[in-house]
Design brief:
heterodimer, A: alpha+beta, Umud Fragment, subunit A, seven-stranded antiparallel sheet, elongated, B: alpha+beta, Alpha-Beta Plaits, DNA polymerase, domain 1, Dna Ligase, domain 1, 3 domains, four-stranded antiparallel sheet, 13 helices, 13 strands, globular
Chain lengths: 141, 420
Amino acid sequence: MEICKIYRIDYSSDITLELISNRIQAGFPSPAEDFEVEKLSLADLMVKHPNATYLMRVKGNSMEPEIHSGDIVVVDRSIEPRNGMIIITSLDGEFVLKRLKISKPCVYLVADNPNYSPIELKKGQELRVWGVVIGIARVYQ
Amino acid sequence: MNYIFLVDCNSFYASCEMIFRPDLAGKPVVVLSNNDGFIIAANSQAKSLGYKTIEKPFFMLEQQLIKDKVEIFSANFELYGAISKRVMRLLSELSNRIEVYSIDEAFLEVSFNENQLLDIAFYLRKRILDEIGVPVSVGISMTKTLAKAAMEIAKKRREGVFYLKPDQHDVLSSIPVNDVWGVGQKYGEKLIKKGVKTALDLSRLQELWAREHMTVVGLRCVKELNGVPCIKFDSVPQTRKTIQRSASFGHLVFTLSDLKKAISIHCERAGEKLREDKLLSLGILVHIHTNPHLEEPQYGRSAATNFAIPTADTPTLIKYAHKLLEEVYLPGYRYLKTGVLLFDLIEEDMAPGNLFRQPYIDSKEQKLMNSLDAVNTGLEQGTLAFASSGIGENPNKMRQSKRSPRYLTRWSEIPEVKAK
């Protein structure tokens, strides 16, 4: 057997004493003790690639009923955009929210709200996708 | 085989600003230093208009910048720090041997086959550009010094990547000896006098000669240029040696009491930094000076002293700083800038005891400082301040008229996307 590291117990340390006294007061160790893992976090649920994820606030109602004005969208820039996804792109120098619709040979940027007309990309026109929306955060005050 | 990748973000601060501003694509952008003093970053479009970093004060360039339709930003270090963290985290996916050299630059040690190097560099570059939005250049070689040299070439190439082999004599001979990492101006001049003009000349020096004429530093350069790694790989960042806080005034200041207020604010910020890094300071330096760009009487002076015991206590910093300020202050001048420098920093748990005085650690002063920091971290900086900093006024308040939103770190400032 190989000994990796030898620890010396420091009885003078406050921390050790405190732990021991907690145990004594409790009488029995908690049966849940070994199951105490980190709390659930919404960020972990929503964010798969923290390096590539950005939060943006939505202004406007073109994506109703799915996304309201004031919602926060979670945008992942490492995901390949595919048909049906909601994406962030820039039009006239502004970030805009659109749904990507690919029905070959045409590509459309569509709004969920029928009051807005779809944009058809012309042949040879380049589409720059800034990121893909992977979630929405909405807080009721 | 082990290789060194040097990854450097192109015009980093300007690139950070452009991530969130699609309207600026292809347009010239500059970023100004704290207080809008100088240009500290210019993107390639601004560089091609002739704007350089830290050349002339901003106020002398402002009219021309506006005429050239250059987009001007005040420094937004909260944003740049957050983007930098993302870049470094992404790099550390490739190798856990990473040395963060500055906010926008890191060395990576990797072991790959030689024929994979360029593909990996292009892959890294693409991911950092696609996922974070920052363009980077990559210099690759066998040692840090050669990787630095490779970077010089990579920056000039469209593809932004260059692999330098130690026997590439044509490349080494194109690099002036002054530009070799670690040589510097002083050694460079000495070497040129002796006929050593390029990196290639330097690499061909006899090791004994280099040692004799240029000490170990020179020997290290020669070896590194020949592909023998000599400079330690520092994965753990070193403890900082000094903390500096200084700023120009928004307007010129005459009186000792205004200077004292300003220096108190610097002491507060420097104290926060000390405590954040769990350091104690042994010495403090205070400096003041007038505006060298104005045609009027000029004066500048600094003074330093040691503390009785190592400390991170803001009132103590302020008390000493005020004493020093009284020593250097001369009435009758108009002051532009003042600042403090804390030096001889040691880690909290390394503090030597002092028989006659209660040490700072575990004192009631330390407890007070910790609660102060807790309040100021949760709220806007300076919510709780010392009376000597002047309440409700701040002569030192940074000029940051053109700062962009702190897109990544404040809920109220996240970018907006239009649903229209």
